[in-house]
Specification:
By secondary structure, the chain is α/β, with parallel strands linked by helices. It has ten helices and eight strands. It is globular and about 75 Å long. It starts with 16 loop residues before the first helix and ends with a helix.
């Protein structure tokens, strides 16, 4: 587009609007009868400041300067059935918001019961980085387990005004189901064959009894993850925490969460936006 004559009507996607405006206002579109090069000119890229993450950050922003980043559904490194943004992509948005001079802060909008341990520590680090640059308000509808781990470094955590706004569930859990008896009642006999020497291959499965070694490994993994989880909460909330009772895995309402130091205030999205502006 930048290397051809601009003629006729053009349809521009909403998320590209700011980039196109910047280029037009800067008189950076130039006709080129020889066609266009594969690489856009540096001055055009700089004026547009275009990237996929930049486009989304602009699209999600209130008044162009405070992005509202949605942390919804099951959190995972990859996409899940109820989460249209993966942790990987959300972290890219967070880092982009931190480096974008047009953004004065950010709101993380939580409605998540948590998710996988994998990548949550990285998410926590991304939020901590953003909070070191600009004010970050985590606005909570539901923020449990991995969601709280990721939200902990926020400048402030603001509970939603609804009666069911909840936060907590600090801890790690693994649920194992042995279906061997159920299959036996149905007349099904599952046989598992492993290659010679692969005696530890897929020992954690729903068809065989777990041996003591496997059970011990599960417990060790849970405890290691929980240690990291608790460390992230302590680092993020610091002296605001008032009681060790929060480590049991309980979920709290807004009033109790504020009392225990897991949250700072209550408010809706508009209040969260105004709070970002106050803290910048």
């Amino acid at each position: 587009m930048t290397g051809n004559f601009l003629s006729g009507a053009w349809a521009i996607a909403k998320i590209h609007e700011n980039a196109i405006k910047a280029a037009i206002q800067g008189d950076l579109f130039q006709s080129n009868v020889l066609g266009y090069s594969a690489q856009l000119p540096d001055h055009l890229l700089k004026a547009a400041d275009y990237s996929y993450e930049k486009a989304w950050i602009d699209y999600l922003s209130i008044n162009g300067h405070v992005p509202v980043i949605p942390v919804q559904g099951t959190m995972s490194r990859g996409y899940t059935y109820d989460n249209y943004f993966s942790n990987t992509f959300l972290m890219k948005l967070i880092y982009k918001a931190a480096e974008d001079d047009s953004k004065v802060g950010a709101i993380l909008n939580y409605n998540s019961g948590g998710g996988t341990v994998d990548s949550t520590d990285e998410f926590n680090a991304a939020v901590a980085y953003l909070a070191s640059k600009k004010p970050v308000i985590s606005q909570i509808t539901f923020c449990a387990s991995a969601a709280l781990w990721s939200a902990a470094p926020s400048t402030e955590i603001m509970m939603g005004t609804g009666p069911l706004a909840k936060i907590g569930s600090i801890g790690t859990i693994y649920i194992h189901t042995n279906v061997s008896k159920a299959l036996e009642q149905q007349g099904l006999d599952v046989q598992i064959y492993r290659s010679t020497g692969s005696i530890d291959k897929a020992k954690l499965n729903p068809y065989e009894e777990l041996d003591e070694e496997t059970e011990a490994q599960i417990q060790a993994d849970l405890d290691a993850a929980n240690k990291a989880f608790k460390s992230g909460i302590r680092a993020g909330r610091g002296s605001k925490l008032t009681s060790d009772s929060i480590w049991t895995g309980k979920v709290y309402n807004a009033q109790d969460a504020i009392k225990l130091g897991l949250a700072d205030s209550t408010g809706d999205m508009n209040k969260a936006y105004k709070r970002v502006l106050q803290l910048q």
